[in-house]
Each structure stands twice: as structure tokens, then as C-alpha cells.
Amino acid sequence: MLSRLAPLPVWSVAKRVVGVWAVAVMFAIAMSAPGWAQSADAARSNETSLAPYALALAVMASWAILMTVLLFLSVAGTPKAKTESGHPVRDYSDPAYRRNRAFQNAIETTGPFLAAILAAILVGASPFWTNLLALIFLVARMAMAAVHIGTEIQPLRSALWGIGLLCIIGLALMALFGAFAL
Average of pLDDT values for 42-59? Predict the structure, then answer.
């Protein structure tokens, strides 16, 4: 089964990533209903402080799910050639290398994204802009993963990376200005 992933076109990969993500989000929504993991009173107390950032919080959970999907995709299939350390040799025509790079690239972005979004939420930055930038980041990174895994189109991958980076910078600036306003 895993060896069949090598020749998948970009849309097939995208459908799988989105499918897994959608199932996980539905499961998370079902589990977050009052009474599943917390009392109704606890749910109401959370609503007063974090409710405006519900979308941003869902984006963080979705990012964790996307990272997990990319982790499994990164080890699927057999690379054309391996380095001495066992990693795929740099060859963008090799789908195994591209899957590995998509995961590695997502790892590199996780720290700045989580720091910026958590700081924006904690300082009380505009919920509208926090939610919007978080959602744009997630969509851009999902598209980037699909393009990275399924194609060799460097300019599109770079453009999607840039969109994600701008979202992180926007979140970080809102957090920074919000921190000085406290």
C-alpha cells in the first residue's frame, strides 16, 4: 500500500490530505461538545475568553493533523537513492524526496507559526485578523504540501511558502504591538 504512493498526482495527494483532515476535524468537533471532556460550566467559562479565537485554535489543531499526515507520507515509498544517513538523495524528480522535503519544510515552519499565533491570542490581538491570518496560513500550507508532493513546480511552491510566511509575520507583528499596548 505505501509503495503505491510514489506516482500519485497532486490532486490525488490533496484529496487524501483533505480527507484525513476533514475526518479528524469532525472527530475533534464531536469530542469538544460539552460533557465529552469537560462540564458545561467549564465550556461556558472557556467561551468568554477564547471563543473569539475559535477558528485560530481550530487551525492550530488542523496544523497538528496536517503535520501527522505529512509525517506518514514522508516515510511512504522507497526513494530512488539514499544518503549515508538514510535520507532520500536530493532529487526533485523522486516523489519520496519531495514527500520528505514537504514534511521537513512543515517542521521548519511550525515553531514560528505556533509562537506567533499563541502570542497573538494571549495579548488579545484582533480576533478577526488572528483568525483570518491563521486560516490563510493553513490553506497556503496545505496547498504547498500538495504542490510540493505532487509536482516539481518551484515558483508555485515558493509563492505558497511566501503567503504562509507573510501570515506568520502578520501574526507576530500583531502580538508584538499588542504586547506593548498591555
Answer: 78
